[in-house]
Each structure stands twice: as C-alpha cells, then as structure tokens.
Amino acid sequence: MPITIENVTLMFLIFFLEQCRDDIFDSNRSLLWVIVVLIIDTFFYWGMVMVVETIEARCSRCRDSCILKCKGTGDKVVGGGGSNMGAIMEREPDPRVQEEIDRITKATAHGAGAVDMAGADADMLIANMSKTFVMSDGRLNEAVKDVCLGVKRGTVFGLLGMNGAGKTTLLHAIQGKHQASDGDCFIADPGADNKTLSCKHDVDRVRQLFGICPQHEVLWEFVTPREHLRAFANIRGVPAEAIEQVVEDLLTRLDLLDKAEEPSAKLSGGMKRRLSIAMSVIGSPKCVFLDEPTTGLDPNTRRFVWDYILEIKEGRIVVLTTHSMEEADALCTNIGIMVNGSLLSLGTPQQLKSMHGSGYRVTVRLKDDATTTEDDTDPLRVALEEKYNTKEGEEQEFATVEYVATSSTKTTRVFAIAAKNLSLGGLFQLLEDKKEDLGILDYSVSQTTMEQVFTKFAQFQKDDTRAE
C-alpha cells in the first residue's frame, strides 16, 4: 500500500475503531491510545473553534433578525443606549466635518477597488462607517453613525467624547472586532506599493498592520513582561533571530527591565499600562490604536508615556482616545469630537479653541483689604464691563464679560472675556491703571482650554439609560 495522506488517515481510523470496540475508558489501555485520543481531541476542538468563528457573524445577524421580527418597534436610540431621541438638543456638525465628508466621498466615489488615497491626502480613510446594535427590547442602538475621517501617517489623531459617545465602538469596527453595519475603512498597505486594503474584505492582512492597546489590560497574570513580549513578537512575525533584541530594547525603553522577570500580576498599574503599550507596538505596526492609554496613571508616568507616544508616531498612524483634555492638547495633531455616535467637530487643538472657545480667562488676585462684592457693583467687575460691555463709537472694543463665581473667592476673582479679537495690551493697561485703586496684587490671562471646548459639546450627549 503506498504511503499517502489518504492511506495514513484510513489506517488511523481503522486503528481507532478497533480500539473503540472495547470500553473506551479502560484503564489498561496503552500510552499510545492516550496519545491518539489527545491528537483526535486537538483536531476536533481546533476545528470546532474555526467553525464557531466562521459562523459567529451569521448567527449574530440571525439573532438580530429574530429579535426585530418578534419585538422590533422601529425605534432608534443613540449614544449611551437608551433615552428618547427627542429628550436632547441636536447639534449640526461643524463646517470642517462637512468638508471632510465631501473629501472622503469624492475619494471613494468609484468603489472599494478604486479608492483615491492620494487625492484624499490620507493613509487611512474611514468612509461612512456605522455600527447599529439590536437591543434586547427590539430597539436599534446607533452607536456609530456615518463617520467620515482621514488620518495621515506621522500624526496622532485624538478621538474625544463622553462615555457612550461611540469612540471605542468605532475603533472596534475598524479593527474587525465588530462588523460594521455600513461603510468601510481603507488603509494604504506600505508593503504592496501602497495598495489600498479594506477593513471589511482584507481583514486578515489589515490586522497585521494594526497594533492595539485596549482600554483595559489583557495580561496573563503568571507570565512575565519578557515572556509577554516574546509571545507577541512571535505572533507579529518578528524574525526569530531578532526577537530577543527587540524585546530587550522595548523593556529598556519603557523602563520595565527591572521587573522583566516578575509575574505581571505583581506589576503596578503604571507598569501594566506600559507593558500593554509595548505589546501594541511590537512588530512595527503601521497603525497603532491607543484606547485611553494613561487612565489612572500618576503625572510622572503619564508624562513618560506621552514622550513615548510622540516618539512612535514617526512613520505611523496613531489613533488615541482619551478623557484627558491636557493629554489631547499636548499630543494630538488633529482632534475629532464625537457626540451620540456622530463626529461633530474636527480640527487642530488651536482651531477647536478658536471656533468653540469663549475668549480669555482673567484671574486677578486681590489684597485682603480690597473692596469686593458678589453682585454687579464689584469694582473690578464694573471696570471690566465699562471697557468691554458698551460700544462708544467704532474704535471701542466690544466683548462679553462674565464673572465666574464657581472659581472665585474673596481675594481671587475670575472672569471670562469672550471676544474674537481682544487687545491684550489694552486689557493689561486697564489692570495696571487700576492696580492701586482696586488693590490688585497680580493677575494672569489664559486662553480657552480644551476642557472648556469639550464641556461645550457634553451638553449634547445622551444619558446612558440602557434598556433592560
């Protein structure tokens, strides 16, 4: 009998069936029998996993269809997942968002096979991506709605939004963890003459280009940082002869060398976060997703991570989600703000401050014996309002002066001055002239912060009232 795969398989099955004629659990069976059963189990369960992964999406769609047929009401909810759509104010996207939509639409007008990445001036294009979940009561939760976005290599793109705004869901749809309900994401493949890859149709190749740092650590508690990085280096296809050097370099750069042989369960929160970031960049991915990478870190560790993020952005796309406005301002080249699953604002930090900011914040520190009141007769407030709140001819500056009571005390007065073209020289001159009369010790003027811009959008986010 010739030795072929078919003949070997047949002999293996005959042997197995002969052994099964007696009690399969007979304790007197040979070690060879045990090995055979283990091999069969390996292939059986491996095949089961592959089958389950293949039909998972189809089963999910079937389940959603059944829920819609049995309970579907046609009602839609957005954002956190639950309250009535009419219960909130609506806000139209900014002009820059509309320009981005037009640009992406033009670049993808000829279909997935002819995406004009060069014309869109981007290395990753998110084209009308949406994700809708079917809730248990039959309603539709529009977690992400028609997001259009282009990101260039060598930049850090910040994705901001309140809890439930759709940031993480959008990242999962791009990465393939969730199947997008509509739209697609395209990325230039640097290894194939910048061939355009689809996150829907080329998911296996696309995942090789992605590095992911999830919102929560996914570490094996009894495995050391060195072993984590070795495992991920092998998974990511790092050449065997280069693995040890790559691992050593990452441990050194992220200050984990002293704890390289400790089980990950014994690492501090900051060390676990740094290890997660190291795992996301091993293998030189072309696009790195960092989902709230500095949450819970102390200021020193946070600054360390910031420096590393700025270092790894060279030649890569870095997409960052965060709730720290200071972090977004310090790291991000461009920022998008999501509300209720939609992208409502887009631009550089300075552009967002100029568009949505409220001018300047003036903080004045007074002497203990200075005259102050909490009403409209406060001398300092009166002086500012006389200069800015009235118009006396074309040369008079006009701005809105607002007293910020929540940040003020008896000896520290805070005012928000809203003006597009405020003369700082005139403001400084006024405070200097009134310094002796009003008992001013010192003062400071600061621009609108990203936190104030973010707060302006927070009022449009739906409450997280989930259906049971």
Description:
With 468 residues, the chain is an alpha/beta fold. The chain has 3 domains: 5-70, no CATH class; 95-355, 3-Layer(aba) Sandwich (Rossmann fold), CATH 3.40.50; 358-447, Alpha-Beta Plaits (2-Layer Sandwich), CATH 3.30.70. It is built from 16 helices and 15 strands. The model is unreliable at 81-88, 392-396 and 464-468 (pLDDT under 50).
In short:
By secondary structure, the protein is of the alpha/beta class.
Number of helices: 16
Q: For the record, what CATH class of the largest domain applies?
A: Alpha Beta
Q: Ends: how far apart?
A: 64 Å
Low-confidence runs: 81-88, 392-396, 464-468
Inertia-based shape:
elongated
The helix-and-strand class reads alpha/beta
Chain-averaged pLDDT: 80
Percent of residues in beta strands:
15-25%
Please give the domain count. 3
Radius of gyration: 30 Å
Strand segment tally: 15
Largest sheet data: 6 strands, mixed
Oligomeric composition of the shown chains: single chain
**CATH homologous superfamily placement of the largest domain:** P-loop containing nucleotide triphosphate hydrolases
CATH architecture of the largest domain: 3-Layer(aba) Sandwich
Strand order of the largest sheet: 7-8-9-4-10-11
Characteristic terms for this protein:
468 residues; alpha/beta; Rossmann fold; Alpha-Beta Plaits; 3 domains; six-stranded mixed sheet; five-stranded mixed sheet; 15 strands; elongated; disordered C terminus
Question: What's the helix and strand layout?
Answer:
Blueprint: H1 5-20, H2 31-71, E1 76-78, H3 95-107, H4 117-120, E2 124-134, E3 140-151, E4 155-160, H5 167-175, E5 182-189, E6 195-198, H6 203-209, E7 210-213, H7 225-235, H8 243-253, H9 269-281, E8 287-291, H10 299-312, E9 317-321, H11 325-331, E10 334-339, E11 342-347, H12 349-356, E12 360-366, H13 379-388, E13 400-403, E14 412-418, H14 424-433, H15 435-438, E15 440-447, H16 450-458
Parallel strand pairs: 1-3, 4-9, 4-10, 7-8, 8-9
Antiparallel strand pairs: 2-3, 2-5, 5-6, 10-11, 12-14, 12-15, 13-14
Helix pairs in contact: 7-8
